[in-house]
Amino acid sequence: MTDTIERKMPRISGFAALLLELAAMAATVCWFVGTVPALDRTGPAFGFWASLIAFTLECVAMGGFFVVQPNEAKVFTFFGRYAGSVRESGFSWTNPFTVRKSVSLKTRNFGSQVLKVNDAHGNPIEIAAIFVWRITDSAKALFNVNDCESFVSVQSETALRVLAGRYPYDSDEQGRISLRANQDEIALELRKELHSRLEVAGVTIDEARLSHLAYAPEIAQAMLRRQQAAAVIAARRLIVDGAVGMVKMALDDLESQGVVKLDNERRASMVNNLLVALVSENEAQPVINTGTLYA
Fold this sequence. Notes:
The chain is an alpha+beta fold.
């Protein structure tokens, strides 16, 4: 496939061309009127035919005027060959034998459908995204693809599927990117993936972000229980770490202040009692020991 790249189309100001056109047509009409008296004597002369041809060409030249709206480009072809594009808004004139088509350069949104795919761990998930895109090369958008909007739609959903299969929904590994926890990184990767796919169509992706992310219904309950279990384990780990630190601090303070001298067995019993009191979910019930551990 030949890659067509946008280039500027030669043009002149439409107002200047219109003044020249009107002046030329007025001169041609005067020329034609001046040849009419001679028709009765000698018949049609060179001036008569020349004025008619000139007037015809001037009428054809009127077809060279065109208007470009803001955020729009006009793409011109000349007998089947790409001639150039005009992005500057306003009234202009160019070769009247060219065929022109309008291409919108406005920023557009595209929301993908909710897709059911497998993540990197093979878990079925539901995913969707919103894309903000615009055409930056009018020639590529018009000549390199059949339907630019349809092409963006299909390639966006394809890129989303590829990205979803590259990363897990959630990751227990430290430092590994996941779809749920690393939204900014995933958005950046999605833009890169789309850029490589849409460059041929002259399209730039300004933003791409996930709009929907969830486990598929058939595993949603199981994954919810897994997340709850992981949260409980993390909470327990935090509680135990805190309790160990508090027990160490209590024992160090008791010995440094000379409150009590503890041998290894009493120290172990103290640690056991303190950990039970700090870690237990139920309120601790104090027990007064009036004897000795060695009785």
